[in-house]
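Hi all, long-time lurker, first post. I run a small reading group and we've been trying to get comfortable going from sequence to structure in the token notation. Rather than ask abstract questions, I figured I'd post a concrete chain and ask someone more experienced to write out its structure so we can walk through it together at our next meeting. Sequence below, copied exactly:
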Amino acid sequence: MNKANITRGAKIFGLGLVALLLLVVISVALLL
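-- Answer (accepted) --
Happy to help. Here is the structure in token form:
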């Protein structure tokens, strides 16, 4: 695997992680 591919994957993974965290925070805020 070349470096560009790895960084792109890491970026997508990071974005997904942030989106998941936001979803959890929003759902918790709505429940409270």
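A couple of things your group might point at:
The chain has a mean pLDDT of 92.
The helical segments are 3-31.
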